[in-house]
Structure formats: structure tokens, C-alpha cells
Amino acid sequence: MAIETLKKEGVSVQPVRIEGRLIASTFWGKAWCDHLESFSDFENRLPRGRTYVRSGSVCHLDIRRSQVHAKVQGKDLYTVGITIKELPAPEWERIKRQCTGKISSLLDLLQGRLSDGVMEVVTDRQHGLFPQPKEITMSCTCPDWAVMCKHVAAVLYGVGARLDEKPELLFLLRGVDYAELVAEHAVSAVAAAVKSGTGRRIAESEIGEIFGIQVEKARKKAPKKKPKKKPRKSSTPGARQRKKRS
Fold this sequence. Notes:
The chain is 43% helix and 11% strand. By secondary structure, the protein is an alpha+beta fold. α2 (27-36) packs antiparallel against α7 (150-165). The longest helix has 19 residues, at 178-196.
């Protein structure tokens, strides 16, 4: 009902849907939820948040740069806003240095896929991309006086579920560009390949996978057929006789 109402209001609805009991199933999604549960100040509020997100109460969740906007169905439809401070530039530079050499393969690098090794660095609770409680500002239109109400808790768990689908949103939340992380690896990988002489050409099948295109082999052009010579017209017997007489 709430989703239909939001659609009528022109909202491009992005509900959080949880299948089964697990809120998150991937490495980065689980890490986000584990990080939330390390916040001792909010441990009494988190269980109700888990119940809400599992029941489908988070009707809309939109992650932007350093911002989360959401709609949660309770007794009424509440609006939740979460602001997360951007990661300081020196911290981002440190993370990029730590991630050097953590890409599992050249193909993963070119496709922008992040390896588990990289994720172990960026999801470190103390020195990674995850925000600390003091870096998070939360608000909800519900009458609950608590800083983290059950609706806010549900949205924070919803972020973990969304990271299952799009782990790059973690970088967006902290205001950094994960493409810079990939670019750092590209420079290192190319330099290492050139130095060791182990560089290789990318196969056609890999080019298609990397750039999302289908590479077709060039067809050999058939040789042009020479035009047939037209047969000469034979002269008539009378013409031949006149030719002899002349």
C-alpha cells in the first residue's frame, strides 16, 4: 500500500526485500551489519530494526553521496534521513596504498570488480570505509525520542542488504571514487608487467567480456570475379567475300 502511494507521488521506489532470515549474504554486506552491531550504544535498538527490515517495512531506500534517504512503514509512513561524513582525504590515500597488489586478476581489474583482499581493507572496522557512530547523523519523522529509533535501525540494515547487490555504494556513502582505487592498481599492474616482460595481449573473448561488446571476426572478402569477355561477332559469308574482293 505504502509503495503504491509513493509511486503515485512520483517517487522512483527502491524497496528493500529480504529473502530468508539473512539480511546480507555477501562478504561486504555481512561486514556492514557486523559493524552496526559493534555499536554498543545502539544494541537495544538494533533487534527491532532487524525485524522491521525483514518484514519489508523499508519501502524505499536511496543511497547517495554521504546520504541515505528512506521511507519506513510503521504506524504511519515515516521519513528517515541519514548523513555520513565524507572520508578525509589522508585516510583515503592510506587505504589506496594498503590496497596495492590486492586485485586477484587483470580481468577483475579491468572490469572494476573488487577482490576479497581489497574488501578486507576497506571494511576494516577501525581503519576502513565504515563510519563510526560519531560520523553518522540520523533523523526520523516518528515520535520516538531516541537518536536511533527502530525505523533508522531498519534503514541501516537495509544499507547492508543493498551492499549485497552494489558494493560500490559503500564508496559513494563515504564520498570517495572507487575508480581511483582501480586506477591505482592499473598503474601498478602495467608497470610490473612491463618491468618483468610478462605482459600479454588481451584475447578477443576477454575484450568482449571487459567492454560488454561482441567481437566478430572479420570475414575474408571473396576475390572479385573478372568480367567475362564478350565473344566477337562472326562476320557473314557475304561480308567475307566482299573483303576478299577488295
